[in-house]
Design a protein that fits this description.
Radius of gyration: 19 Å
Structural class: alpha/beta
Number of strands: 13
CATH class of the largest domain: Alpha Beta
CATH superfamily of the largest domain: Response regulator
CATH topology of the largest domain: Rossmann fold
Distance between the termini: 28 Å
Strand order of the largest sheet: 2-1-3-4-5
Oligomer: single chain
Number of domains: 2
Shape: elongated
Largest sheet: 5 strands, parallel
Order of helices and strands: EHEHEHEHEHEEEEEHEHHEE
Length: 234
């Protein structure tokens, strides 16, 4: 799903994070100190970073400041034992996208990481969505509010349709599982997922297909796996 750098000097925690994220489908690289993290960031393309502040050789804050001078958009989640308000403020002001303190719940870290990656992949207003080297510039999705546009025309979307579309856009060209969709729905305020029938998701997919009919995009049902947002066949 994503290529993640874990910069953490605690061997046990680093190994546990790597194992959990790998199990979740991500590819992972690890750094035990700040210098190694910088070297990896210079040589490898990552989709996101989990960064401890208390790194040896070069501390995490220095790594973050160095990174932000070179790459503005790479999502960074600070994971640290520094739980003071000033620490949080300094980390976020230095360019972190999120801040989580130790000890933490692994499920929360994975949810925060997924949300951070999802936001980073949203097409900006006026930008274009690239799938397989082809541009679908007519589609724009608001990353915060349940709104989307085809060209200048706004698409009428329910909260669940928007959550589904956002997930498909964030993973454009990759299969999104039914479980991923249900998890995204469960995270939406006021949404109750329990009892969603098997054919209910198909109804939402069908509605979304109709609303994207003029976008140059299609939603393909990949049997036994989930759904794939792709350029529509001519």
């Amino acid at each position: 799903m994503a290529h993640i750098l874990i910069a953490e000097d605690d061997d046990l925690l680093r190994d546990a994070l790597s194992a959990q994220l790998t199990q979740a489908g991500h590819s992972v690289a690890c750094a035990a100190h700040g210098l190694q993290a910088r070297e990896l960031l210079e040589s490898t393309r990552f989709d996101g970073v989990i960064l401890d502040l208390g790194l040896p050789k070069i501390d995490g804050m220095a790594v973050l400041q160095w990174l932000r001078q070179r790459v503005l958009a790479l999502p960074v989640l600070i994971l640290t034992a520094r739980d003071g308000v000033d620490d949080r403020v300094n980390g976020l002001n230095a360019g972190a996208d999120d801040y989580l303190t130790k000890p933490f719940i692994m499920a929360e870290l994975q949810a925060r990481l997924a949300a951070m990656l999802r936001r980073s992949r949203m097409p900006a207003f006026g930008g274009s969505l690239e799938i397989g080297g082809l541009s679908a510039s007519k589609l724009r999705v608001d990353a915060v509010q349940p709104r989307a546009w085809l060209g200048d025309d706004e698409i009428e979307l329910t909260q669940r349709e928007w959550a589904l579309l956002s997930l498909l856009v964030a993973n454009a060209g990759q299969v999104v599982s039914r479980e991923d969709v249900l998890s995204a729905w469960q995270s939406e305020p006021g949404e109750v997922v329990g009892g969603v029938a098997s054919n209910a998701l198909e109804v939402y997919v069908h509605r979304l297909r109709r609303k994207l009919a003029d976008s140059g995009l299609g939603i393909r049902n990949v049997r036994g796996l989930g759904y794939l947002l792709e350029t529509a066949s001519p």
